[in-house]
Amino acid sequence: MADLRKKLSTNVAGNFFVDSTCINCDTCRQLAPAAFRETGEYSAVYHQPEAEPELQDAWRALIACPVGSIGTVKKDKLNLQQAMASFPLHLEAGVFYNGFNSEKSFGANSYFIRHREGNWLIDSPRYVSHLVEAFERMGGIRYIFLSHEDDVADAARYAGHFKATRIIHEEDAEAMPESEWLVRGNEPVVATSHVQFIPVPGHTAGSLALLYDQRFLFTGDHLWWDRDEHGLDVPSVRVWDEEQLRNSTTRLLHHAFEWVLPGHGERIHLSPAGMKEEVHRLLRRRFKVSQQSVA
């Protein structure tokens, strides 16, 4: 829980605050951009939410914070319970953002797909009873897809509880050596009639994306929406191989999708044509690759 004695001086006066245990993971800024902003090495409250939906967003950010750095001066059990009840947060077509981000993965986002042929957990949130019960109500977890070695968090506990099959690329398998399904090589893998695994080495040797229903691309730490650039972005630090990163990004042009759902960074929903143009823009800006050369 956040400690009022450690409240950062960069917070504006009011009920919500961030304390000095913040790890600057960006979770709160994604969930409640009207309230939280990056200030130096931390997040801080730059605008106190006063009405819906800003209040609900701020309470969700408080719950999702992986290190409990967000607090309120006045306790409000009702609003806290309502915000908690909203997780997993439905995005569209049976795809959910889980909340309860884990410090073990530096606050990475995780997701849940509800599907009649078996549900999927995409990377891992904290292991908390609220999510366990929510997943049970929705039919449990059949598969746990791990995008790369950094974001496994509590996947082993979820796998044990739900008897789920864990999936990871063999190049990153040391992070979850008991995984039941190892993806090999750099070619896309058709996993089910609705799911395809797309190797995207670059950030790590075994980075994977998951494409669901030709609409939802779960990208781990490979690709996200950058609010400052107003466009897609890829890692510029902690990159295993720059050339592989460029090639992996270029190969995404072979796939149609409408959503980018990352581990770190903003999610974004565009038309398939709009998404393809944004990938082209990223390749030009980040790698100096012309659109003609990848047409």
Commentary on this structure:
With 295 residues, the chain is of the alpha+beta class. 23% of the residues lie in helices and 23% in strands. It has two domains: 4-84, 2-Layer Sandwich (Alpha-Beta Plaits); 87-294, Metallo-beta-lactamase, Chain A (4-Layer Sandwich). A hairpin with an 8-residue loop joins strand 13 and strand 14. The strands form five sheets. A seven-stranded mixed sheet has the order 5-6-7-8-9-10-11, covered by helices on one side. Strands 12-13-14-15-18-19 form a six-stranded mixed sheet, with no helix packed on it.
The H-and-E topology, N to C, reads as: EHEEHEHEEEEHEHEEEEEEEEHEEH
- Number of helices, where a helix is a run of at least 4 consecutive DSSP H or I residues: 7
The number of strands is 19
Q: What is the radius of gyration computed over CA atoms, rounded to a whole number of angstroms?
A: 19 Å
Instruction: Write down the domain tally.
Output: 2
Using brief descriptors, characterize the structure shown.
6-stranded mixed beta sheet; 2 domains; single chain; 7-stranded mixed beta sheet; 295 residues; alpha+beta; Alpha-Beta Plaits; 7 helices; 19 strands; Metallo-beta-lactamase, Chain A
Topology:
Layout: E1 16-18, H1 27-31, E2 36-39, E3 42-45, H2 54-64, E4 70-72, H3 77-85, E5 89-92, E6 95-97, E7 111-113, E8 120-122, H4 129-137, E9 143-145, H5 155-162, E10 165-169, E11 181-183, E12 189-190, E13 195-199, E14 208-212, E15 216-220, E16 224-226, E17 231-233, H6 242-251, E18 259-262, E19 268-269, H7 272-287
